[in-house]
Write a structure and sequence with these properties.
This protein has a domain of 141 residues: Up-down Bundle (Butyryl-CoA Dehydrogenase, subunit A, domain 3). Helices cover 57% and strands 9% of the residues. The protein is built from five helices and five strands, in the order αββββααβαα. Strands 4-3-2-1-5 form a five-stranded antiparallel β-sheet. Helix 1 packs parallel to helix 3, helix 1 packs antiparallel against helix 4 and helix 2 runs antiparallel to helix 3. Claudins function as major constituents of the tight junction complexes that regulate the permeability of epithelia. This is Claudin. It comes from Astyanax mexicanus. Belongs to the claudin family.
Amino acid sequence: MGLVQPGREVLSLVLGFLGWVLIGVTLPNRYWKVSTVDGNVITTSTIYQNLWMYCASDSTGVHNCREFPSLLALSGYIQACRALMITAIAMGTFGLVATLVGMRCSRVGGENYVLKGRIAAVGGVFFILQGLCTMVAVSWYAANITREFFDPLYPGTKVSIGDGLYIGWSSGTLALIGGCCLLCSCNVKQEKLEYRFPPPSRGAGFTHSASSSQYGRNAYV
């Protein structure tokens, strides 16, 4: 029936929840890209940025951050990465809710385990979508960093991959594993239960009929 094995059910929920939490850590992290001194004149300042702002810090530890001035002035991949990360948060939220409802230990939805199994499978799909959105956003951002780094004609400051991207990859991996485990544990096909009752014995019926007929005719004679 549409049941989920309890061990995999709990494991999938934990992995999906950890992936969802790491998205919340990745999105505001300022170190998506960090300046490097490779091929450049050594300076005393460090430049780093994420999807929302760019910052600079000097040797004294003073940080100065500015938000991007206009959404329309941003590069297309930054706008797409923003949309994908926000979508990943929404998908993760839906996945957590659906998984909690579809758990066998949950009282929501009653004891219709076939329906609960299907709801849990939907939660697994949401977790997979969460992981895909995160992986696409983080990998796309990292691909642009790599392209600029190895471009000898790039006039700007060379940058390298920051800690925020590694956290994002971890988030996407956990969400994908959790969603796949949940889908593999669910059988959303409803099995039809056939109830077979043994046919009545003909001998017993004839005996009963005969005895009834005998008593009916001769009982009061």
